[in-house]
Amino acid sequence: MTAKAALVVDNVTKEYEMARSGTRIAALEGLSFTVREGEFFVVLGPSGSGKTTLLNLIAGFELPTKGTLTVNGAPIEQPGWQRAVVFQEHGLFPWLTAAENIEFGLRMKKLPKGERRDLVSKYIEIVGLKGSEDKYPKELSGGMKQRIGIARALVVDSDIVIMDEPLGSLDAQTRTEMQDELLRILHKEKKKTVLFVTHSIEEALKLADSIVVMSERPGRVKELFRVDSPRPRDVLTDPRMIDLNVKLHALLYRSQTPKAS
Amino acid sequence: MGSKLLRLISSFSLLAAILIGWEIVAGTIYPKYNATSVNIFPPPSAVLGIFWDLLRSGELVTHTLASMARVAVGFGIATLIAVPLGLSMGAWPAWGEQMRVVIEVLRPIPPFAWIPFGLLWFGVGPEQTVFVIVISSIFPILMNTVAGVEQVEPVLKRSALSLGASKLRLFINVVLPRALPQIIVGLRIGLGFAWMVLVASELIGSTAGLGYLILDSRNLGLPSLAFMGMFVIGIIGYLLDAGMRWLERVLLPWNA
């Protein structure tokens, strides 16, 4: 693979000052990794590993204390549609219908009406929301809401789509369904670069081209894995997946010593 | 359709029973023991009679319109001040904090306490009534607008920003619609307050309006006129609130 780098995180440190004591706490320390164009990049880490901080930096909601983050060579300075985000709490606008939610980013980009309409109906089709376009979010199930969240982030044609545990608030069955759905949707979106934050090893195994495992606070890169098995993957029986599963478990939960190899 | 009408009618049955009971007590039983009782406790039929007289003479319409115009102007001014002010307080927290201190001191003062100043500044007439109405309705509108802006979930703001919204678009397309239900709650409470202080203010310093009508009943020795004024005020207040609720449903189908 000689793919270009889409996102470069270079030696990034993020410190927060505690309001009471004034002491500084590092959420991330010397974090570096590269996301290649068109890949599905999974950030895997326990809670408290600075995943949310990392996501806020990539989205541009916050700035790093030290180090740089660049997308296609340009430094990240503020949030924008070039780095669309899918949130765990979906963040849909409750006063807009499903179609209007998907249209939101296109309106912000000031696309002409006809173009917006075509794109919205295309993405409604892709994420399987036909027939629910005119419903308000509160009338839709958790899985349906997150389909809108995904469509809304894809339709603006960003350089990279950031997904923050997008399936985290779904029940187990819907979650498994949506993992397959996500693969299907992204297959139609040729070469979409995705940064996917999760603490689910199963999700990482099923979806990832690359997996970076983060350490506990302060967040650093513990290890980076490239996964080139074709999808859909059989996580339960494929020997390579089983092997990777064991390694990830060891890294994440320290139940085994990771020095075995 | 028929059952809907039936339900509507049956929801007024207690009110009807009270009116009938009152008519029997005040119209037939009580006068047997006290011949002058109708002068202090008039039955509904007497109230209805005077209602009909004033309706025909056009006086009732004149006074009702005078009162409603004052509420409309006062409530309108309060809305025009409180909504933009509340939005600005929500948008700029430092400004909001300063304003909040001022408001928290002014807010507990009952609107009626402003009546002497209203009379002093504006004299007897519609202006002082409008003034007191503005004072009474401005606070609920303001506080609810601030609360509406503050309750906008951070994830909605972040969603909008990461979908390319500018600061201005964030405000117009996210903060405003998200705060709207709470703003409308404030408007409803504010309108209720406005209608309530109207009468008090008209009782004290006015030459027209439903409150003035009630005051006039004492001068005329006509208690049924006072009752009539009270009922008209009650019914219009109810209709105003119902109108606001209807507006809420129409404007906010997603929030129902």
Give the count of helical stretches of chain B.
Answer: 11
Shape of chain A: globular
Low-pLDDT runs of 5+ residues of chain A are none
Tell me, rounded to a whole number, the average pLDDT of chain B.
90
Assign a percent range to the helix content of chain A. Answer: 25-40%
Distance between the termini of chain A: 26 Å
The number of helical elements of chain A comes to 7
Mean pLDDT reading of chain A: 88
The first-to-last residue Cα distance of chain B is 23 Å
Structure description:
The complex is a heterodimer of chains A (261) and B (256). Chain A is built from 7 helices and 10 strands. Chain A has 261 residues and is of the alpha/beta class. Chain A has 2 domains: 5-82 and 158-254, P-loop containing nucleotide triphosphate hydrolases (Rossmann fold), CATH 3.40.50; 96-156, no CATH class. In chain A, helix 2 (98-108) crosses helix 3 (113-126), helix 2 runs parallel beside helix 4 (142-155) and helix 3 crosses helix 4 (142-155). The longest helix of chain A has 17 residues, at 172-188. Chain B has helices at 2-10, 13-33, 44-57, 59-91, 93-106, 115-122, 126-150, 154-162, 167-204, 210-220, 223-251. The chains are: A alpha/beta (261), B mainly alpha (256). Chain A binds chain B through residues 59-61, 78-81, 83-85, 87, 89, 91-96, 104-105, 107-109, 136-138, 152-153, 156, 162, and chain B through 153, 155-156, 158-166, 169, 173-174, 177-178, 180, 252-255.
Short description:
With 261 residues, chain A is α/β, with parallel strands linked by helices. Helices cover 33% and strands 25% of the residues of chain A. Chain A has helices spanning 51-59, 98-108, 113-126, 142-155, 172-188, 201-207, 239-253; strands spanning 5-17, 24-36, 40-44, 66-71, 74-75, 83-86, 160-164, 194-198, 210-214, 221-226.
